[in-house]
């Protein structure tokens, strides 16, 4: 407990001082482009904000003007209704105060972008959050050559290596199928933006509508985002709200129930009776996390790059200078510096969608990493 409390508020890894000509610097409001006079995913209110994606730690209320990718419009407006928003198709270049800006797919969630900036003969790319493996719910990650790459490092420890998307979906499907045969509902907790839709789309892709073992029931908290995904053309299975089925319907016992983590132990779950439950998160790769979470199963499903993915993405940019924003920052900075990159950190206020789970997992991850030789 003591250790978890400490890891909940890690000592911030200080930002390195800016160099003359830097295209992005750390300011109290967020990451700032001095020649362009705009911010990327700022955490305090600013005039101009370029938003990499609609997760709540990257996209906040209070800015005067927002810019995001065209495919990100629906989900960003679902989360921040009423904002003054402009959008840009992926790959299309605009010039603002002499800075050429374009957005490129990050493969993280619907509409997620890397921000490419070009000015004075330099190219910088700010990744936001990203994932390398395509999952069918958003445009796949695209490596963008640059001189300086600003990267996340949420799962920046060598122990994080994800199973492939088909393997994960087969695992979730077989768990659901076995529960349905035994007359038990399957409740999977997944963050309501990104992971939930990935499970829904992935299972449909795995089995087809006719192959699903029972009905799919979604928690009301998912409705708006599911609609935004469907509007964007992402295939989702037929879904019902729990209230749309009669209370003692036998179908409830064959159902897959997708709910946000906040629904765990809520009275809403009682209608499903003796169900099997699972949690979907990258942190589930550590067995202790599942145990602490008190669920029957853990699926290591993440919308972030794993350790090999982070290193592959960093190498693919060809950048010599790397700036790490959030996650396991000191580990990644040290690793890269030892291997010939110029690596440093930006102190940011980005967190993780599964913050509570992360806190519990970090203690275990850090001690496990201590026992493992770097690859
Ligand atoms: Zn994110
Ligand atoms: Zn993030």
UniProtKB/TrEMBL annotation:
The keyword Signal does not apply. The keyword Hydrolase applies. Keywords: Exonuclease, Hydrolase, Ligase, Nuclease. Residues 1-11 have a biased composition (Basic and acidic residues). It is an enzyme of class 3 (hydrolase). Residues 1-20 are annotated as: Disordered. Its EC number is 3.1.-.-. One of its GO terms (molecular function) is exonuclease activity. This is Ligase-associated DNA damage response exonuclease.
